[in-house]
Amino acid sequence: MTGHTAHDLAISQRLDALVASAEGKGDTVTLHWILADLHERAFGLFLLILALPCCIPFLYGIPQIVALPLMFVAVQLLIGRRVPWLPHGLGARQVSTEGLANLARRAGPWLRRVEAVSRPRLAGLTRAPLDQAVGLALVVFSASILVPLPGTNTVPGFAVVIVSMGLLQRDGVLVLLGSILGAAWIATLVIAGATLASLVRTWLGI
Q: Which residues pair with 95 in a beta bridge?
């Protein structure tokens, strides 16, 4: 990678570089360390790294570790911060270096396929003030990851990953696609919840 700055690297290459750096730190790294290592454009990269584990169906443990920091960072995008920050309690959460490496290995081929077709389009959606509306959508999607039902992290996780890649690539089309996917998931949850509540009321005779 000689001759390339971190800004020049593709997203998948940045993730690989993060893993290589983490492997020199021991068996685990904290979210604070990951955030500090990302340097520029940390919002999109940090959101992407936090959301990637949530895309794995029926994975338990890691999504629960990253869901709250993911929502916290999305709120900061919503309110217009340019650099993400985590309080000590969230930033001290640890992720295993091996788990991070496995994540990069599994996500790499998919990320490279998206990178191949992505380009700057509708870039206004990736910059202030419209990126604050994107932040609101990400807050809602992140909150739905916390729904304590099997497999509920996968669809909103994909939505956040696609939006994050759109922010990084300045690709508003990806931002729109991710937002539509996440909104459809939220609508499904709301409709399912309303239907269930109606059935319960009918069964109880309320």
A: 29
